[in-house]
Design a protein that fits this description.
heterodimer; A: mainly alpha; three-stranded antiparallel beta sheet; globular; B: mainly alpha; 15 helices
């Protein structure tokens, strides 16, 4: 019998330093992999990375643009975090965001110029949340009442929402399309009164709505009875059922909350920075990036906020890379690599990898070789 | 309906269905080992860009196919390591692979000089038979009118079906997917089987992706394959994890994806954005019909699908 150099031992609750260190190391590892690919394609990783930091944080303008990019990611991150926490695999943040944008722009256009801002702005913003929840319900209701696999339905709904948005602006003369744009179809601007005011360069107050929702999600999950029951369902649906928790209703609630958060991301874009439903500016994969945010934040809605700022910084820096001859897709690759490492990092949060002599005797030892 | 329109429709369905056949059969083999890999979309995109790159560099389309297979297999190892060795959530790991693969393919497509985006295709596959029996009515184009990869896809289906249901290795594979603890006790190396079939799935996904960049389009652009990788994952369920059913399901979805083409030949105009929704709507309907309620159990999903296997936790 050979002596193993390392053994893997499951641990209960990981110490805080581990749960903080693992996501940080995930980002570092992704940057290293990115550097490798950049070097392979004849670019200097150092100049690319310093250009990114400079673009994202090097000026007040850069910081405000980073926060603009972070705003929808906070919400799609919360959407993924609360759903995944309960093992509800809502991969449809993308579609819910888009349908939220469609709903928000629709309400804004329908209300028209005459409506006072005090009414128009909340109406447009809430329409996005409602739209996101409605779009999520198309997958949530079958999941809860029929047991339909939600991974596939939410995914397919992404493509349907994307095509619907493109149809409304690019493929038809719907009310969503600006009637004055004939050659290059554009979204019809929503009334000025419904727009969220800016306060720091182009950054608008929408970011506080996003942060507020993240805090609300944290309070709901950590501090309320409802949240406690949600966590129980997430840990074991069986146990939840036996203890009298109405599991279907919990799943439906979380699913719709998740959809509403993603939809809100859409309406904050429409009422904020975009001012209209602009297909080109909305089809950026913000829903999928939200999954990266949630994973790196380890499904904690509060941690979603700083992680969304990091991802927003990357999104903001992407286009600037083209000025030094590096594709903006570098950012998408980096974000993907961050997720890959964050996912693998969960292993080190769930397990200790130790030398055999350091095994803690109180827990049953598991002799799986890791090296 | 005019005969020739019907034939053109079926022919187009086989064309768009072929990458789905490769990817779906690949994912069937992976899932039969008990591993769910949601990274199909990412593996297909990496295969597509790798295939186009190699063909662009060498002018040899067969080298392109080999590059796509190798690239798909290589990147699938990420999921193999996370899900089999580290035993983290297979769902999140697969999503990570898709997101990384998508970003990586976009990076590769734009990082070189000249960039692959916008570069012309240097070689493609043509139908292997011209004239002769390929000109026979009906069966000519439908059976004999294809390029070599279509025939390869039929071989893959037949081979995968034979492997799964008529070989000892296939029996062991199914045992690993149904009850890994028993398979382990019977001396089957669960880890090795799972790795092997994750990689096999990656290779076939890469090949499916290359069918877009080398035959269907043929060129490279961001997100070249639309949602084909996601459709393939739905098709595994539609095909109830059986390769022959996957072939016909893939052609059905191929036809659904080509409705615009069919309507064009019939000179009917319809909004292309709405037509583009059809395969995705069809997939949702299929999920509602197939995975709802008690019917889900009759589908025959591998019992251990998505469940990490740790020997100690028996």
């Amino acid at each position: 019998m050979t002596t193993r150099r390392f053994v893997v031992q499951p641990r209960g609750l990981a110490p805080l330093r581990v749960t903080l260190l693992v996501p940080l190391l995930s980002v570092l590892a992704a940057l290293l992999v990115g550097a490798l690919f950049l070097a392979l394609t004849g670019n200097s990783p150092w100049s690319v990375y310093s250009k990114m930091v400079d673009t994202a944080f090097g000026s007040s303008r850069g910081v405000s643009e980073t926060l603009i990019s972070a705003t929808p990611l906070i919400l799609t991150g919360v959407a993924a975090a609360v759903a995944f926490k309960m093992l509800v695999w809502n991969i449809g943040g993308e579609g819910q965001l888009l349908f939220g944008a469609i709903s928000a722009a629709g309400v804004g256009i329908w209300l028209g110029d005459g409506t006072p801002a005090a009414l128009a702005m909340p109406a447009v913003i809430l329409a996005g949340a409602a739209g996101g929840a409605v779009w999520a319900s198309f997958a949530a209701v079958p999941r809860v009442y029929l047991g339909t696999n939600e991974i596939i339905t939410t995914l397919m709904l992404n493509f349907i929402a994307l095509n619907l948005m493109n149809y409304l602006v690019l493929g038809s003369f719907s009310p969503w399309r600006d009637p004055e744009s004939t050659q290059f179809p554009q979204g019809r601007p929503i009334p000025e009164g419904a727009r969220i005011p800016e306060f720091f360069n182009r950054l608008d107050y929408g970011i506080f709505v996003a942060v507020g929702v993240a805090i609300l999600a944290w309070v709901l999950i950590v501090r309320t009875r409802w949240g406690f029951e949600v966590r129980v369902v997430g840990d074991s649906a069986e146990a939840a059922r036996y203890s009298g928790i109405k599991v279907p209703r919990k799943i439906l609630g979380v699913f719709l909350f998740s959809g509403a958060a993603a939809g809100l991301a859409g309406s904050l874009l429409v009422a904020g920075i975009l001012g209209k439903m602009d297909p080109r500016s909305l089809d950026l994969g913000l829903g999928f990036t939200g999954i990266i945010v949630a994973a790196l934040a380890r499904l904690n809605p509060l941690a979603v906020i700083p992680v969304a700022v990091l991802m927003g910084a990357l999104n903001n820096a992407g286009p600037a890379l083209q000025s030094i001859g590096v594709p903006s897709a570098t950012v998408r690759m980096l974000q993907g690599a961050i997720l890959v490492f964050a996912v693998a990092g969960e292993f080190f949060i769930a397990n200790r990898v130790v030398r055999p002599e350091k095994l803690v005797a109180t827990t049953p030892a598991t002799g799986d070789a890791a090296a | 309906m005019n005969d020739s329109v019907l034939i053109l429709t079926i022919f187009a369905a086989i064309g768009l269905g072929t990458p789905l056949v490769f990817a779906t059969v690949g994912e069937i083999l992976t899932e039969r080992s008990g591993v769910l890999n949601l990274g199909v979309q990412g593996m297909m995109l990496v295969g597509a860009v790798a295939g186009f790159w190699a063909t662009f560099k060498t002018g040899n389309v067969f080298l392109g196919v080999i590059a796509a297979i190798v690239a798909g297999a290589a990147i699938s190892l990420i999921h193999g390591f996370s899900s089999v060795t580290l035993r983290v959530s297979q769902i999140v790991s697969g999503l990570a692979l898709t997101i990384f693969g998508t970003g990586l393919s976009e990076f590769i497509g734009r990082a070189g000089t000249p960039a692959l985006v916008g570069s012309p295709s240097r070689a493609t596959f043509s139908p292997i038979l011209e004239g002769g029996i390929a000109d026979w009515p009906i069966v000519g184009p439908l059976i004999f009118g294809h390029d070599v990869l279509v025939y390869l896809s039929w071989l893959v289906v037949a081979g995968a079906s034979y492997y799964l249901f008529h070989t000892k290795l296939g029996l062991s594979l199914r045992a690993v997917g149904e009850d890994p603890a028993s398979a382990d006790a019977a001396g089957v190396n669960v880890t090795r089987y799972r790795y092997a079939h994750v990689v096999l799935g990656g290779a076939l996904s890469g090949l499916g992706g290359a069918y877009f960049s080398l035959v269907l389009v043929p060129s490279w652009q961001d997100d070249l394959i639309g949602g084909a990788g996601w459709i393939a994952i739905a098709l595994v369920i539609v095909a109830s994890w059986r390769p022959w059913r996957a072939l016909f399901a893939a052609y059905l979805f191929g036809a659904a994806g080509r409705v615009n083409f069919t309507l064009q030949t019939l000179e009917i105009s319809a909004p292309s954005n709405l037509l583009a929704m059809i395969p995705f709507v069809l997939a949702i309907v299929a999920m509602l019909v197939l995975t709802s309620g008690k019917r889900a159990r009759l589908l025959g999903a591998p019992a251990a699908l998505g469940v990490p296997y740790a020997r100690e936790q028996r």
